[in-house]
Amino acid sequence: MGKRLVLNIRGAYTVILPVAVVLVFALILSLRSASQERAATLMLLYVGMVVALYVFAGNSGILSFGHTSFAVIAAYMSAYLTMSATRLSFILPDLPGPLLRAEFGELPAMLLAALCAALFALVIGIPLVRLEGIAGSVATFALTVVVYNVASYWTTMTGGKASLSIPLTTSFSDAAIWMVCLCAIAYVYQSSRFGLRLRASREDDVASQAIGVKIRRERLFAWVLSGFMFGIAGALYAHFLGAISPDTFWMAFTTLPIAMLIVGGLKSLNGAIFGALIVWLIGEMLRAIEAGVSVGGARIDGPTGLRELGLGALMLLILILRPSGITGGREVRWPWPGPQVKRGVARVLHAKSVGPRPGDESEAVAQSPSEAE
Amino acid sequence: MDYVIQTIVDVLSLGGLYALLALGLGVVFSIMNLVNWAHGELIVVGGYTMYLLAGFPLPVVILGTVITVTVTALLMERAAFRPIRGAAPSTLMFTSFALSYLLQNAALIAFGSFPKSIPGMSGLISQVKIGSVELPLVNIITILVTICVLVVLVLFLKRSSLGLQMRASAEDFVTSRLLGVKANRVVVASFAISGLLAGVVALLFLGQQGVVRPTTGLEPLTIAFVAVVLGGMGNLSGAVLGGFVVGALQTGFQVLLPVAYGQYRSAFVFFLVIVFLLFRPQGLLPPRTAARRV
C-alpha cells in the first residue's frame, strides 16, 4: 500500500509541478497590488478553461471550438440562480418562473449551472461524438455559432445583445481553489482507465478498437466531463467580469483557450497548464509595453493592439519551430527513478498510475506520419 | 414568375460567390491538407487595397486588388506554411489560425477597428431591368464572373501540364512527387489560384458591402469552411457544389422562414450543417482517396 502511494504521488508529479508553479506565480502577483491580483485571478481562470478544454481535445485529439456554448449556458444559468427574484423580474421579466424565483448561494449555483452545461453536452454529444478530425472541429464550431445566434436574439432568456450585470463574486481564492480542482480532475481522468482508452484511440483508432475500446463511448464521457469543467470555469469567469452578454462569449473567448492549448502542446496536461501561463504572461508583458515602459531613460510607447499582434507572431513562431507545442505533448516526470519501478509488479503499477511512458508515446507519434504517407 | 426568376438569380449569384470562396479554400486543402483559416484575411487584404486605391480608375483597382491578394497568398505560403509542410493537418490548421490572428491585428493597428468605406464600387448596387424583371447589377456580374472563372479554372486543370500535376498531387502527393512532380511548384500554384480567387471574391463581396473592417474575413471564411466540408474535403467539384448548396440554403431560409425567425437564420444553417455532417461526415462528393482502407 505504502509503495503504491509513493508511486501514485510520483506519477502525480506531472500535474503537481505545473500547478505549483502557477499557484506560486499567482500568489506573488496577488500580493503586489489589487490590480495585479485581478490579473492573477484571470490567469487562474484561463488555466482552468484550458485544462477543461484539454480533457476533451487533448485526450481525444479532436479540437473543439464548441466549448464556448458550455460557458454561455453555465454563465447565464449561474446568473439566474444567484440573482434575487426581484432584481431578475426587473431585468428579464419573462424568464420561466422556477428560474426567476430560485436563489442559491454562489457555490451551489455554480455547480448546478455546470451540471446544466454537462447535460447539454450529453444531449448534443450523443450524436456529435461520431465525428472526428476536421468534420468534428467544423461541427463543434457550428455549435458555437448556433448558441451565439440563439443567445443574441432570445430576449426572454438573455435580454438579447444587451449586457446583463451579475454579482461580482469570483475572488482570487475561488479561482485558485477551482484551478487546482480542475487540474486534479483532469489528471485523475487522464490516468484512469477511461482516459487511457481515449488516448489510445487518439493515437490509433483502428488498433484501439481492435483491443476493445469503444471510441464513441469514451469520447462522450470525456466530452461531458469536459463540458462540466468548462461550465465551472465559464461561470467563474462570468462572475469575475460582473457583466455578460452573448458577445462576451464569441470569437475572442473561443479562440484564446484554443491558442493557449496549442502553444503549450495539445497532447499533454502540463502543456495545457504551461500554455495558458506562457500565453497569458506574454500577453501581459506586451500589454505593459503597449502602456509604455522606460528602458534606460528612453520611453517606449507601443501602439494599441501590440499585444494581439505580438501574440499572433509568437504563436506562429512557436508552431513553426515546435509544431507540437512547447511541451511537444510530453509530461514532466519525476526526475529520480527509484529502483523498485523496474521490477515486475511495481512496474505494472507504475504503468497503471502514470500511463504510457514518454518513450512509448513518442514512438507512436513518430510512426504515424510515415503511415499517413 | 418575376419573383421566381429573381430568386433563382439570387441563388445563382450568392451560390457562385460562395463557390469561388470554397474553391479558394479547397484548392489549397486538396494539395496540402491545410484548412487555411487565413483565407478570410486574404479577402480583408483585398478590401483594404480597394480602400487605398479609391479614386483610381476601375481597371487599376481590379488589377491592383487581385495582384496584391495573390502576392499576399504567396508570401503566406513562403513564410508560414513552407517550413511546416507535411506536418499533421491539425498543426497546419493551427498555424494558419495563428497567421489569421496576426493579420487581423495587424489590420487593426494599421487601419483601426472602424469600418473603412470602399467608394469606388458603389455602381454595383444599381438595378438593371431585363424584360419585366428588375435585377441588381452585382448579381448578374457575379454570375458572369463565376462562370468565367470556373471555365478558365477547369481548362487550366484539365488541359495544362501544371493543372494535370496539381490534380495528380491532389490525388496522391507522395506518388506524384516520385513521378517527378515538383512539390514547390504545385503548392505555389495552388496558393496563387487561392489568392486569385480571394481577390475576385474581395472585389465582388466587399464591393457590394461597401465597407471593410479587420474582422470582415470571418463571415466569408465560415461560409467557405462550411461549403468545403459539405461538398467533401479535397474535392474541387465538391467545393463548387457545396458553395451553391450553402447559397441556396441561405436564400431559401430568407424566403421560407417566417419573419419572426429571420434573425435565427445562421442558427438554422449551422444546425443543418451539424445534422448533415452526422449522416455524411465525408461530404457530398468525397474524393476517392478519402475511402478508408482498414
Observed structural traits:
heterodimer, A: 373 residues, mainly alpha, two-stranded antiparallel sheet, two-stranded antiparallel ribbon, 4 strands, globular, disordered C terminus, B: 294 residues, 11 helices
What do you see in this structure?
The complex is a heterodimer of chains A (373) and B (294). Chain A has helices at 2-32, 34-60, 67-82, 85-91, 97-101, 106-128, 133-153, 155-158, 172-191, 193-203, 205-210, 215-241, 251-264, 269-291, 306-321, 344-354, 358-372; strands spanning 164-165, 243-244, 293-295, 298-300. Chain A is mainly α and 373 residues long. A two-stranded antiparallel ribbon of chain A has the order 1-2. Chain A has a two-stranded antiparallel ribbon with strand order 3-4. The radius of gyration of chain A is 22 Å and the shape is globular. By secondary structure, chain B is mainly alpha-helical. Chain B is built from 11 helices and 4 strands, in the order ααααβββααααβααα. Chain B has a two-stranded antiparallel sheet. In chain B, a hairpin with a 2-residue loop joins strand 2 and strand 3 (133-136). In chain B, helix 6 (161-171) packs across helix 8. Chain B is globular and about 60 Å long. Chains A and B meet through helix 7, helix 13 and helix 15 of A and helix 4, helix 9 and helix 11 of B.
- Helix fraction of chain A by DSSP (H/I, runs of at least 4): over 70%
Overall geometry of chain B = globular
**Helix-strand pattern of chain B:** HHHHEEEHHHHEHHH
CA distance, first residue to last residue of chain A: 47 Å
Radius of gyration of chain B: 19 Å
In terms of DSSP E residues, the strand content of chain B is under 5%
Count every beta strand of chain B, where a strand is a DSSP E run of 2 or more residues.
4
The largest β sheet of chain B comes out as: 2 strands, antiparallel
Radius of gyration of chain A: 22 Å
Shape by Cα distribution of chain A: globular
Summarize model confidence as the mean pLDDT of chain B. Answer: 88
